[in-house]
Amino acid sequence: MPEKIRVLVNSKPMLVEHGSTVAVALALAGVPCRISVTGQPRGPLCGMGICYECRATINGVEHRRTCQIACCADMDIRTQ
Amino acid sequence: MIGGGATAAGMGHIVTMDDTPAQFALSSYSQSLWSQLAPELPSNVEYAQCGTIWVATDEEEMCEVHRKLDYYLSRGSSAEVLDSEALAAAEPNLRRPLAGGLLVRSDAVLYPPCAAAYLLQEALRHNTKTIFDTAVSAANGRVQLKSGGTIHADIIINATGALSPALSPGLQVKKRKGHLIITDRYPGYVRHQLVELGYLKSAHSVATDSVAFNVQPRATGQILIGSSRQYGAEDSGVDQGILAAMIARAALYMPSLPSLSALRVWTGFRAATPDKLPLIGPTEDRTMFLATGHEGLGITTSLATARLLADHLLNRPSAIPLAPYLPTRFSRPAIEMAHA
Questions:
Q1: What is the pLDDT of residues B36-54, one digit of tens each?
Q2: pTM attached to this predicted model
Q3: B120: closest CA among B259, B7, B251, B261?
Q4: Are residues A55 and B220, on separate chains, in Cβ contact within 8 Å?
Q5: pLDDT in tens, B195-245
Q6: Do A61 and B220 touch (CB under 8 A)?
Q7: Does residue A51 contact residue A63 with C-beta atoms inside 8 Å?
């Protein structure tokens, strides 16, 4: 099993530890998961899939909860 | 609370309806009043003239599109027919192929609670006095309040929607329950208010529960998904069976719609009359006036209702006749109606 996984965050490749959630990848990339209606940056708050603050687009599907999804090889992650 | 009932529960679709000449007159007049008011509305009202597309699935419904077009054009309103390709270009997430649709560009959407708040604020600016209480009865120039007080007034207007029979016993207004779903933000997924042409059939079926495809883009990119109609459902709880039927209906038109993430589901009660027209104007009690029974068109027709009532009270000429909406149409003796 490879130690690191390659994912794309807003089209930029990066490496994360195996088992990292997508929220971790976004935190490492230093970008907010999404921008709120009023223009504020948003990221994980509860970290357990309840608050929906950490949504982002994963492999073309919008509004995925990034704290609940593990990174996979070549996953396409886009902030909203 | 002002704007806390059906106003807060509804979609906020400003739509010209052609089911009867009287409904067309009221809704198109009121739509023009909204359009005139639009520049004054604060941004939180989210008024957007996105237009309505009446969606036709087959050639039979396309005949209805052309009938509707003629109706609008003959009454000085504009509308345009979309063929199958034009419909697909206008709304890429609709199933393909569909037969086409009718685009009514002058229709709009808004966020009703903020519109109500704005209208209240304007009334206060004109020295309106508000008393927040619950009326337990209203007749003969007296409104009894739950808190114990009494208000004396020469003119009392019952504008309490689905609750109006509680204040005016015997009023022919029934609750008609509806469900709505709101999704997360998907900007551009839906561009116009989309309504299936079968909507009128469903809106007019009085006996059974019905659902119809009716979706609306919000300014935030969120999508409102409707709609359902139920008589005799007094419980405000969400009915999972109805909800499933609404989503299945919507999926017939927008196959990818069930994959969107829904944020909330809620219900509300429309104030429905037997002939689908509102009750506007005087009653047998000289002090009591009505502005209720608008069913699903209360936001659309609110401004015209207020204008018609004001014109009547001030003895001014009105832009359209009040006669079709007069409450007295239901108070004639039944025997006369039977022989009419």
A1: 999 999 999 999 999 999 9
A2: 0.89
A3: B7
A4: no
A5: 999 866 666 666 678 999 999 999 999 999 999 999 889 999 999 999 999
A6: no
A7: no
Average pLDDT over all residues of chain A:
95
Helices B21-37 and B298-313 sit at what angle, rounded to 10 degrees? 90
Q: Which two tokens stand for residue B283?
A: 């009653």
DSSP, residue by residue, B209-258: -EEEEEEEE-TTSEEEEEEEEEES----S--HHHHHHHHHHHHHH-TTGG
Reply yes or no: is the peptide bond before residue B92 cis, omega within 30 of 0.
no
Q: Do B261 and A63 touch (CB under 8 A)?
A: yes
According to DSSP, residue B328 is labeled: G
Q: State which residue of chain A sits closest to B220, comparing Cα positions.
A: A37
pLDDT of residue A64: 95
CA triplet B254, B257, B262: central angle to 5 degrees?
150
User: In chain A, what are the domains?
Assistant: 4-78 (3.10.20.30)
CB pairs under 8 A between A and B: 12
| Interchain contact B186–A (C-beta under 8 A) | yes
Query: H helices of chain B, where?
Result: 6-9, 21-37, 59-74, 84-90, 112-125, 164-167, 199-204, 240-253, 298-313, 334-339
Share of chain A above pLDDT 70, in %: 98
Which residues in chain B come in under a pLDDT of 50?
334-340
